[in-house]
Amino acid sequence: MPSVLVSTTINGDAVEYACPQDETLLDSLRDRVGLTGVKEGCGTGDCGACSITLDGRLVCSCLVLGVEANGREITTVEGLSDGDKLHPLQEKFIEHAALQCGICTPGFLIAAKALLDRNPNPTVEEIRYGLAGNLCRCTGYDKIVRAVQAAAKQMRKK
After folding, report:
1. Does the structure show a pLDDT above 80 at 51?
2. Which ranges of the chain would DSSP assign to H, the alpha helix?
3. How many other C-beta atoms are found inside a 10 Å radius of the C-beta of residue 57?
4. Looking at the 3D structure of the chain, how many domains does it have?
5. What average pLDDT does this structure show over 112-122?
6. 132 vs 46: CA distance, rounded Å
7. Quick one: 74 and 25 in the same domain?
8. Please, what is the end-to-end C-alpha distance for the chain in angstroms?
């Protein structure tokens, strides 16, 4: 199958890559662009490990074709930090030990950021609902929810 040239914006930077028409955006991001923070957990959109935002909307990159990113804006976990300065969500995930093996962590961070962008003061129930598309097999969810609550509080102070 012939490759298609894709021009997109990823984490604020203009990026071009060529990919086969049937390649997932997950594989394009990892294999063509080198953004390995996007993880493949299930390949069917059920676990959230490959979560990104596409034009500000939370999506599973395993369910989107790489060519569909043409002319669109993508944010991955690599785009959360500002150089060496971690995003408050990243800081709070570390402080609250809300990660273990790390496979699900990038997806949780992106989903949490998408939630806090829409709702800067979510309840515990809203956090759990906002993260419901992301699965973790190691930590359970309480530490993750507490980390998101703490990050939301810190972000509201700014």
Report:
1. yes
2. 25-27, 88-95, 105-118, 124-130, 142-157
3. 9
4. 2
5. 98
6. 10
7. yes
8. 49
